[in-house]
Design goal:
Elements lengths: L2 H11 L3 E4 L1 E4 L2 E3 L7 E10 L7 E10 L4 E10 L18 E4 L7 E10 L1 H5 L4 E11 L4 E12 L2
Antiparallel strand pairs: 1-10, 2-4, 3-10, 4-5, 5-8, 6-9, 7-8, 9-10
Length: 156
């Protein structure tokens, strides 16, 4: 299954969202000898589709780094998926929209990723625990990978 298919399937599963989590995390860092960006206040929210209107899955996090924030890649995935996604897998997923926030200018950003969820997609999604993984990248090349930045449960 392609990474794109996993992303779409994972995001569609949120149609049966029972709960959402908010987390702060350090994650795994890497890059050109620098520390990675800090990701805080990660959360996921869901609006279920109805007979006449699509639903949505929205992931939001605050990202900061001394060199500035380049991007935040986002992937929802079922906890039962093996192997779990790794930082290399994140290269093939979509980025959140990141806007400068706070008094630190472009050194901090509020990043939001939203995707539509149709009733048909929701019906095809597996039940159980799900995670939202992120890969944050800084302007200096530093990265932070957190495979479980936020979580939710899908019930049938």
């Amino acid at each position: 299954m392609s990474q794109r298919a996993v992303t779409i399937s994972a995001l569609a599963a949120a149609a049966l969202l029972a709960g959402a989590g908010a987390y702060a995390f350090a994650g795994e860092t890497g890059g050109s000898g620098s520390t990675g960006p800090e990701v805080t206040k990660a959360s996921v929210a869901y609006v279920a589709p109805t007979a006449d209107k699509d639903g949505s899955l929205t992931f939001t996090a605050e990202v900061s780094d001394d060199s500035g924030v380049r991007h935040l890649k986002v992937l929802a995935w079922p906890a039962s998926m093996t192997p779990a996604p790794d930082a290399d897998d994140m290269a093939h997923v979509e980025s959140a929209a990141c806007e400068p926030s706070g008094s630190s200018g472009d050194k901090a950003a509020l990043c939001t990723y939203t995707v539509k969820v149709t009733s048909a997609e929701a019906a095809e999604s597996p039940n159980g625990a799900w995670h939202v993984g992120v890969l944050a990248s800084a302007e200096d090349g530093g990265t932070t990978f957190a495979p479980k930045a936020a979580g939710f449960t899908v019930k049938g």
